[in-house]
Amino acid sequence: MADRNGGSGFAIGVLVGAALGLAIGFLFAPQSGKETRELLREKAEAARERATEVSKKVRETAAEAVKKAQTKL
User: Fold this and answer.
1) How many CA atoms lie within 13 Å of 1's alpha carbon, on the beta-carbon side?
2) Rounded to whole angstroms, how far apart are CA atoms 20 and 26?
């Protein structure tokens, strides 16, 4: 049987892939090391904030699904 996780695994994969792509892009960018580290730090913070928002939405959606399932039972 197929595992149905609502696409959360795919979303996590997209986020990780995007983060890796950004990091590699910054490493090859024509900037000084100090500038590159600062950009990486800023992007990592933004990615962390987005991941926190996404995880909060996923938890809220899961809680709603549990409530709906409980009312049907």
Assistant:
1) 3
2) 10
**What pTM was estimated for this model as a whole?**
0.50
Q: List the end-to-end C-alpha distance of the chain, in Å, as a whole number.
A: 24
Which two three-digit tokens encode residue 41?
């730090």
Structure tokens at 51: 């991941």
CA–CA separation, 3 vs 34, rounded Å? Answer: 44
Contact between 40 and 26 (Cβ < 8 Å) = yes
- 3, pLDDT greater than 60: no
Task: Find the helix packing angle between 33-72 and 8-27, rounded to 10°.
Answer: 180
Could you tell me which residues come within 8 angstroms of residue 61 by beta carbon, excluding any fewer than 6 positions away? 6
Domain residue spans of the chain: 33-73
Please give the Cα distance from 60 to 73 (Å, whole number): 20
